[in-house]
Specification:
heterodimer, A: mainly alpha, 2 domains, globular, B: Rossmann fold, six-stranded mixed β-sheet, 13 helices
Chain lengths: 340, 517
Amino acid sequence: MTSVVVSSPYVAQGNTLKRLMIQVIIALLPGTLAYAWYFGPGVIINICLAVLLALAFEAGILKLRAKPIMPQLTDCSAVVAAWLFALCLPMHSPWWLVLVGIGFTMVAGKHLYGGLGFNPFNPAMVGYVVLLISFPREMTTWYLPNSVSGESLGLLDALAYSFAGADIRQWDALASATPLDQVKTGVAQGISISEIRLSPVFGDFAGKGWEWIAFWWFIGGLWLLFTRTIRWHIPTAVLVAVLAMSLLFYLLDPEVYVSPVFHLLSGAVVIGAFFIATDPVTAATTDWGRIYYGLLIGFLIYVIRVWGGYPDGVAFAVLLANMCVPLIDYYTQPRIYGEK
Amino acid sequence: MLKLHHFHGGLRLDGHKAESLGRELQQASLPERLFLPLRQHIGDHNKPLVKIGDRVLKGQVIAADSALICAAVHAPTSGTICAIANYPVAHPSGQADTCIVIDVDGEDDTVEPSLADLDNLTPVEMTELICRAGIVGLGGAVFPTSPKLSRGKVQGIDTLIINGVECEPYITCDDTLMRYNAAEVVRGSGYLQQILSPRTTFIGIEDNKPEAIAAMKQALAQHPLPNTEIVSIPTIYPSGGEKQLVQILTGKEVPHGQLAFDIGIFCQNVGTCASITRALEKDEPLISRVVTITGDNITQPGNWEVRLGTPISHLIELAGGYRHGASGQLVMGGSMMGFSLSGSEVPIVKASNCIMVMREDTIPKSPGYHDECIRCGKCTEVCPAQLLPQQLYWHARAKAYERTQEFHLFDCIECGCCSTVCPSRIPLVQYYRAAKSEIRAARKAQFKSDHARRRFEFREQRLLLKKQQDEERRRLKREALEKRKSLSGETAGGADPVQAALDRVKARKKSAREDSR
């Protein structure tokens, strides 16, 4: 009897990539449901469409690259990327917007670099930023939460808008700038924060609806930490940096700089800290590296929000930090055993 | 109570220990033939001291060498040498190596033991006896014990650590030895104390072995040793690695590029202690060891005291044969660091702590498809050497071997933790082993080519020097000639030199003619 030589360890590996991805999807559920609760079913349509298109793009490009299709198609990484991408879009988006964005996410963001594990930039953020720059009107048409507008688009209306290009004007009354956007334009016009916050879109802490969605992203993030899908370094660093920056300027002048709580619970800070910045492929990998990486993202988010051209800065902050990862990793190598 | 320290990373693994602990330690019967590889240790090859047809007795030296890092091989029983040739041996490469084959006669006749007066032996004499017994570290590294002791004695030892941790899954040979032979282990530790005179001694045992701890405590009570403590340590793989155990028990790290005795710590496995006892008390060399036979494809897993050289197939028979089918995947060592064997004819050697008999579908034949690295860093969390395994993998895969060394490839202890936790199921350790052997091969080739280059350059230099010397000699000659010429020119007062030469020849011819008359 002669057996083939295989190298140890000989252990059945239980911890698979797919299991990690499924944990992320589970963690996304509460926030996603809250989103749909406050803003109607449009976000669900976006997610379903983005996931289907992402899988189609993934299968197609794997075939073109002559790679085994099923293992990668079923690892759920495309589902997670598409889901995160869809959450960045305005709640009612036409189908072609999703198509173009997810196309960039999967093809340019992921596979042109060599596929999962080789992409230096967060693919979902690549797709989102391409849309933000290319289609500013569509990408900034947001809608009021149900509790403010008193009515919302039903499933059929939302579907009609997404796919049939139904006339947008009949819902003009529902469209509104996001709370972050209102703060930015208000401050630019010299209006004080306390006056800006009189607008009905503001709730107890931040934007109505948004503040509670952020809370559910936080719960999902805790789930990721609890299941050890992610580690604490990046989310903590992002949140601490945003908190520190916003607190500093808030204390300097609370009528020009909005409160730290508002910053933390607005826009994509919480989902960014727990779900986007923690994408392992594009994040730093050493413990200290992750802390610096998170701090950099938090710092950039605040800088872009307050002094940049966009109301929110998570996507740009993440992409800029992605560029710094090789440098961060190189200079934060841990001390090895026995080394002084 | 000793304060224990932590080492970085590690894993809580499913131990698979209960399977092979169901029965007492048994004596394995003698097979028809024993196959004894000439080299069963780290170090130089032995030379055979017997020839085909010789009758050997149990305990007789059959192969040895005078090199410093070497351990002799003894006949495990009496019989006749029937072959000295290449046979399959336990090696990851599956290569064959020279073995002395003994046709067992079943008499088990022993060499007359010469018992030493142990109380009056010096450390050097004791080390010499241990050397003669061919004892090596039985924990897996098989480093010859006597040179290690000599070096330790020179360095000065503060702490002696007896390693009964046995952290690797499936292996229970040390556990069994401590349960049924604790006295020998304790007395062996005493002899090590006699040689090294350490200030403190720790006997480290993982807390998943309460029976072994109890047996050892009892043995220590009956045979008290000075400043010796049996320490129960948490079950976290790889706590039995020398560096990890040093850290757990002393809080010290073995400095990079140094060995434990450089910081006054000496580690020895419990199995080695037992064989030291036998060597010193009974003059019995290392001819047998406890071996665990376990796995999901063996009918009666258990532990046997096995003579070295016994083919594994014989042990599989003793353990009731394969549970499923007529064959299985054989692994020497545990599931984390063991290696696949080429077949069941491979003999037990000094390093064989455990033979895993696995179903062929339990162990994949080839690594096959794995997902790509997503840089999740789980490997970094568990790495006891505190390396960055995913960076190492990246460079090893790209064959950027210089970079792998910058990321401390050679500090990897190949414990397998990273491969175990990898969500992409990348056989990381396999990549590191491949990179290490490539680098070693390149170093060897580099050494050879450097050597050749040095020789070539030396030759060139030598030829150049010779040429210069020749030229110098010629120049001096020429100058001397010219000097003489000018001198003779002066004395001859400008006479025609050609005419003068002709005259000289004539004169010589003339005188020659006169002589011949």
